[in-house]
Amino acid sequence: MNFSELFVLIIEPSRVQKTIIINQLKSFGIENIDDYSDGGTALNAIHLHIPDIVLSSMHLPDMTGTDVVNEMRQDPNLMDVTFFLVSSETHYRYLEPIRQAGAIAILPKPFSRQDLGIALQSTLHYLHDLDTPNENSAELFENVKILLVDDSQVSRKYLHQLLDNLGIHAVTEASDGAEAIEILKQESFDLIVSDYNMPNIDGREMLEYIRSHGEQPTIPFIMVTCEQNRTQLAAIKNAGVSALCCKPLSYDIFKNVITQLVLNHDVT
């Protein structure tokens, strides 16, 4: 698949912004583009003709971009559709749900052609792996067991989908660090993928427990977070995290990190 084969659906109430986005997409050879001005009409269209990418503004006349992606993530038929947010919004309360729901990119207004290109390339790789399973990857990940920890069900579903797309099917889920620790007392895993901000026991506290008291103190641990506080990030690194991935999560980065950890730790 190449850029010209992508079908992109845009949700943007501003005619000027819509024109800018369409022209940027066309500069990559993307011509199959539908555009809508509100979320409700767009969602109806998405259900009728599923796009490869939904590219939405945050503030729409009838809902928010968060509402759009959350409704998409509730429909199994739309779980594979990648979501880009294009917004000048910077408030945590608006962006956090978008990150949790699995946006592949959050692009500012205005965004650069380079940033859009990176997001589009990551989408191509995701769709390629989805449509054409790689025999080498399948063999590499065949016996890998992963513990996925996140208090957001929407986020767990999205991350589970990414893992499944990589060929990793032995995935056990936990809703917070406390539940994960209890599971780890009963079962062994090859890799842990965890959110940071969770109730009861958060990702850093769980990591510290595993490194100090766990049955598998050296297990590879990937922290997926939207945390931007440098002190908090430094504490996560000092706790012994194997890799730190930022939300919104790039499929390419996620794939590369997991592949390297599997190869380096010989978890197969």
UniProtKB/TrEMBL annotation:
The keyword Disulfide bond does not apply. Pfam families: Response_reg. Keywords: Phosphoprotein. The modification 4-aspartylphosphate is found at D195. PROSITE patterns: RESPONSE_REGULATORY. Transmembrane segments: none annotated. InterPro entries: CheY-like_superfamily, Sig_transdc_resp-reg_receiver, ST_Response_Regulator. GO terms for biological process: phosphorelay signal transduction system. Residues 7-124, 145-262 form the Response regulatory domain. SMART domains: REC. The keyword Phosphoprotein applies. This is Two-component system, chemotaxis family, response regulator CheY.
